[in-house]
Amino acid sequence: MRKVFAVIRREFVERVRQRWFWVMALLGPVIFAVIFYLPTLLGRGGGVKHIAVVDGSTSVFGAQITERLNQASAVFVAVRVPGGPNVVDSLTAEVGAKRLDGFLLVSDVTVDSGKAEYRASNVSSFVATGTLQQVLRDLVSTTRLEREGVNPEVVARARVPIALDTKKISGGKTTGESGAQSFTLAYFMAFILYFAILVYGINVMSSVLEEKTSRIVEVLVSSVTPFQLMLGKVLGVGAVSIFQFAIWGVSGRILVSQRRRLIGEGGVGDAGQVWQLPHISAETLLLFIGCFICGFLLYSAMFAAVGAMSSNEQEARQAQQPVMYLVMIAFFSMFAMINDPGSNLAVTLSLVPFTAPIAMPVRWAAGNLPGSQIALSFAILLLTIVGVTWVASRIYRVGILMTGKRPSVKELVRWVRAA
Amino acid sequence: MTTPILVVDRVTKRFAGHTAVDALSLAVPPGVIYGLLGPNGAGKSTTIRMIMGIYAPDAGAVQLFGDGRGGVEQSERIGYLPEERGLYPKMRVLDVLLFLAEMKGMDRGTARTKSLAWLERLGLSDWRLRKVNELSKGMQQKVQFISTIIHDPDLVVMDEPFAGLDPVNAQVLKDTLFDLRARGKTILLSTHIMEQAEKICDHICIIARGKKLVDGTLAEVKRSHGGQHVLVGFDGARGDADRIFADRRLVAKVDGSAQYAELELASKADAQEILKGLVSSGARLSRFELAEPSLNKIFIDLVGPEAATAAAQPGMEVARA
User: Fold this and answer.
1) Considering only Cβ atoms within 10 Å of each terminal Cβ, which end of chain A, N or C, has fewer?
2) By CA distance, what is A412's nearest residue in B?
3) Are A109 and A57 in contact (CB under 8 A)?
């Protein structure tokens, strides 16, 4: 066991010393931050807009619009301007001189036909046009109803906004999670699992390959059994990946807690609607870690065997493809599962051990994964890990001392039988 | 006779299509330098790998230190230098040594002390924090050599240790091997360079095509093979030497050049007859010596034709499955 520990330590120390490890450690959270905050930054569209409301109406409609727009203070500062023959021209000149962001044209026609016009230097901001539409729609319908003699109190009561709040039911209990949060959670868990299993599995493979091509493996297997060597390697690389996750976790925490400072005051409320940060419960974390460990063990054993049966990088790149396809199937089927996490396909994928490590968290986040299925999935997964490791270690044992051409499937079967 | 430290008992190893080692037996007594000699593809490396427990023999058994346990279980007592050398190219020299010492069951503290002492001794102290791939080939070989003996093993197994060594490093290696032997350690090495083996081995075993041809102490092998030999050195004039060497009543075999000849006497021939004949034919001699045959001659006599057939089987070392 001391030897296995020495192998683990070597894998860990040598990897953590490498530059790419720290590049990944530092770049990871930055990439995630960009993914999280990009919609926020784009959505804000340059802050508060100064606009004029050109009031061509004969009622208080223009004044009401101005007042309402100013209430949405984060978006607009509006000034009412009475309509006149040259107003539009002079305002256009103001916008051209960048003293004004734009102006809104309203008149009695607006109330009758619902037509209004917004001219501005930038008309592509969703927040700005969205706010304008909403304010106009509200006021137009209120004005029309009142004109028809409807009691203003009734109108006010009828105008109570509808807030469709989505809440996920999980395990027979209503959670505080919204639909958007579930999606975000499923997406990110699947992505991180896919990414980590692939990256660290390939790490195990290249580590095996390095010992093989540098010929040091012969000295090693005269001192440790191939199984001990493979075990140490997988655990060592696994420890590196968990260390990497820890770094990401801590820096991610800091980024999230500092997000107000990073983005600046205001606007966060809007951004939160685009990418709501999901609440990650202890159970979710536990399932995620369990899935990562199982998925990593399963795939890294296969990658180790691939490394052992190849003689150089090119061969390994070819031989790893079937294994990579398995991980990719698991990842891309996520999109089918999010829509219908209870479907036969989703259930099957979460039971098949090669896709389960990614399928399980997706169904879990989407709110459809009974406890009995978790237990069954993990049982199948663990059995498969034992079986795959057994086969892989036999291929590994023969393969690490082989040079020359890559073995055929028939030869591989013989290795497994003979070793 | 002392109990052998290593017994190889009729081991056989077959690979797809051919038998690499065929019922080979040998016994290595403690405290000697034992040479496993043979042409390329004779099965030396395969034999060594079975001794080390890297390969399981298809038949027969290997016994180390009179113990039933295999090479991997007893790796603490064995140092191994494989034919194909290798270190982690991107690791620092000292870290590689520490790791390989740990693989041999040493604790890190002791390994560090020993590593530093050895690096000092072989003049590599300044390189201890450099990466392996920054070292010259010769320096890498020294590092590899240190890793083989750092844990002070009782048995050192080296596959072609002199291959690729420059004369200076070869001398360092030789000195260290003699030093190990003086301290009661046993060394098993394989080589196909007979001059080298003749200078350092106490015991030898010659194999070809997986079979043992002869084994024993160097003196025994020389005594029992090749009969009586005469070494002749010419000082310019050869006289009628070629006619005398061609006389099958006197000379059984000749091996030599213009200035030098190694003769194997025909049975019952008298060396003095040859001397008389050479002198009277006008040859000027710088040397005329009754001698044991050189190991090289014995080797060529024994494996000459075998070596030719073995070489005609390419890929033997490759097909290891």
Assistant:
1) N
2) B321
3) no
